[in-house]
# Entry
Amino acid sequence: METGHFTVKTERRLQVLDVTGRVEEWLSTVGGVNGLLVVYVPHTTAAVAVNEAEPRLMEDIVEFIRELTKPGGPWKHNTIDATPTHTWATL
# Structure
């Protein structure tokens, strides 16, 4: 079994990034062809999703999440942490 990790830096609080190339690069270094691949993010305000990496779709996902979780809304979590980042990661 091979394990590895890489770090992803974001530029905005809500951002969709394509990490396919990074994962493929790692797979090529370990000779991965057949098997199970687990991609995991250990932070509560980040998430991994599988979808097409089409730029307009990635923009639509961000806008959809913003629309669903409008900052300043009646969210109970705002009394703890005035950011919707935990909700974003759940979606």
